[in-house]
Amino acid sequence: MTHLAIIGGSDAGISAALRARELDPATDVTVVVADEYPNFSICGIPYYFTGEVQPWQSLAHRTSADLEATGMALRLNTLATSIDVAGQRLTVRGPDGTEERIGYDELIVGTGALPSHAGITGLDHLTAADGVHVIHSMGDTFALDTDLAERRPSSAVIVGAGYVGLEMAEAFTARGIAVTQLQRGPEVLSTLDPELGTLVHDELVQHGVTVRVNTTVTRIEKTPAGLTVTGVHQGQPFTQTTELVLVVVGVRPNTTLLETAGATLGAGRAVAVDEYMRTGLPHVWAAGDGIITHHRLLDRTYLPLGTTSHKQGRIAGENAIGGNRAFQGSVGTQVVKVFDLVAARTGLRQHEAETAGYDAATAAAVADDHKRYYPGAHPIQFRITGDTRDGRLLGAQLVGKRGTEIAKRVDTYATALHAGMTIDQLSDLDLSYTPPLGSPWDAVQVATQAWDAATRLATIPS
Amino acid sequence: MTHLAIIGGSDAGISAALRARELDPATDVTVVVADEYPNFSICGIPYYFTGEVQPWQSLAHRTSADLEATGMALRLNTLATSIDVAGQRLTVRGPDGTEERIGYDELIVGTGALPSHAGITGLDHLTAADGVHVIHSMGDTFALDTDLAERRPSSAVIVGAGYVGLEMAEAFTARGIAVTQLQRGPEVLSTLDPELGTLVHDELVQHGVTVRVNTTVTRIEKTPAGLTVTGVHQGQPFTQTTELVLVVVGVRPNTTLLETAGATLGAGRAVAVDEYMRTGLPHVWAAGDGIITHHRLLDRTYLPLGTTSHKQGRIAGENAIGGNRAFQGSVGTQVVKVFDLVAARTGLRQHEAETAGYDAATAAAVADDHKRYYPGAHPIQFRITGDTRDGRLLGAQLVGKRGTEIAKRVDTYATALHAGMTIDQLSDLDLSYTPPLGSPWDAVQVATQAWDAATRLATIPS
């Protein structure tokens, strides 16, 4: 019987535990969970704050009872403090503060990531008790919830306009809080080209959010008037006083435990693993937001995503009990709903592709989600990136109204990217069609044909 | 300058003409169109009858003026009556009845299909004037429209419960007509497994449609009481009198012109072509519902679909002017909306896969379209077929409520089928996730993982 210890009760750790138990029910699995909320859907937290998800318990993918019913043991409120690699045991501190050793045959570490502070002065000491929040755990969620309930703020500044920042702008707006969203770069949702980010920007503004791009926050202070956010906006000093600040400027890998144990760091200072999720330390595997990601178009990078954590965790769980499955790589597929708009991307954008050495070209296209004659058709805005040398598809970005099946349309591109298809080959795909839901050439093919036409025109003298 | 003649103004013919003009604007293109409605979306006709699409002119993908603006010449109300292959010319009969010869360098034939009569007595002489309708052209559409307007029937029998039959059941219901839908097989929508067809059946019944499966219609007669439909229902004689009959029992390839010219017939008695759309007759190409279809899992079959016609037409247009593009094959992707339900399939079902020589296994699964905690989640019913020898994905069927992105979810399977992926490899795909629109393992992956678990359990002794 294999004794499998897993550190981390989020996507990677639980996926690993479930997979090991599924494949070999004789495996003894112990999951060490730092808080008492294993297997919570952290991605769902913004919808708790919109009020759409109630109670908070429903955010659990599975309850502790569900998990234990699969045969895994959960050690809640237990912090792993060190790994003795040679001795194959780890030290944990339990809820009552006492230390304990747990021996293992195999260990999987899924300690995830921590909120980044982006060098903002004040974040070292200001906390939820001061009205300055991050949103990365259920503990953060409860702290924000309590603050909202007790102080009933009428204004908030959100620092950052990535996925979580945008979702939280929607959540605060739904609660009647006036939101100012600050973004360092030239446009919100910097994971998309600004030509598409601007559509998201417009959606925010239409719903009453004040958006300030090109704004770098340098300091947050508690002042008599509230919380004062200071920075630089388009080269000029910027200051805004508000009742609540939410900082969502990304994450950094939480690597302390593995680094101390001797693991190597790689891209983004995340723990280096091979595609089998091996750390290089004997019997120690890792998965999730704390490790590097194999990317099919970029080799190795740091790209923390819940979907990837699930995959890597599942693979680590399989391999730790004797399997031999390789992680086949991310293509960076992401989607976000912002009010009534959905924005998605997969693969690389122009500058990313250029940096990676591709001869990239990007073309824009607009195509209706379904036949225009049928009621409710809406345009989808596309940007397609491909390699002009071999025509290989490198990436796709798309934005459209909710209901235009953006989330699953990006999956066609993601699947094509995974298979290494050329942009031209997208026209060979036998995609579904019925007038209320598509077109004889689906919008995703109209977009790739537009890339083809644009690059042909650009390369063949007329 | 190439003189390209095209027979047929529907999907295949117009796609060919557009592609030839796009790639070489010097090409002289003449399209011979039997009626005066080139490039109409025949798939959209049911939505004209629901009242959702008005006026009928909006069913045109492009107007005649749009088409002529691309530089093609349209010969409307002109019937091609014969092809002189050796002389490279065709004979046409124009709107005034006079015959004319049109010379060509290359000829593309896209004469499509004709409604099948399925051996029903009476269909040889009963027509729209008698209240007996088919729905395959704009002419049929106008005849039915006139009949509905003039007689205002309160009841209708629809013979057939395939895509068009189901859509027309919805259309008649929307107009307050009591519909009885007769289906020869054991369940409606026989392109899906009956386990899923029954969901569509329930949807019809819930919307007031009377459905009679296992009912073979043998005769339609005009009687003093109306139109009497006679047949056999579960081994017993069956008769029903109604005011209007719509027969939608499939199509047969319209091959007379090419057959007379010497072309070979293949699967389904459709014109045989190679993957370049060559008929084997010099300078004669063919595309669309009149020809065989190369299928990636079945080699050659007859599977008339609008999406395929568009692809084949585009390829014929490209190759006729000197291109060298091969049709990469259909995987039989289809989707239909029936009231508030969407049903889709791609690839093969169990019995089709067995017949084709695969070691097929099929597993059912249910998965929510998005995280259940977020409002509006609905289950999607899946059936996945794969080969137990090599794990290759062979087919997928899925049914769910409208709004669950069924149409674009089937496209992920269609793309995976095109790429020849195994069912296990679906778990490697980096599909998009946000709680309002998906799950960390998308429903399409939950379904393939269920197939994997089911076949593993079935093959490994416990």
Structure write-up:
The structure is a homodimer of 462-residue chains. In chain A, helix 1 packs parallel to helix 8. With 462 residues, the first copy, chain A, is α/β, with parallel strands linked by helices. The first copy, chain A, contains eleven helices and 25 strands. The first copy, chain A, has a five-stranded parallel beta sheet. A five-stranded parallel beta sheet of chain A has the order 9-16-10-11-12. In chain A, strands 21-22-25-24-23 form a five-stranded antiparallel beta sheet, with helices on both faces. The termini of chain A are far apart. Chains A and B meet through helix 8, strand 21, strand 22 and helix 10 of A and helix 8, strand 21, strand 22 and helix 10 of B.
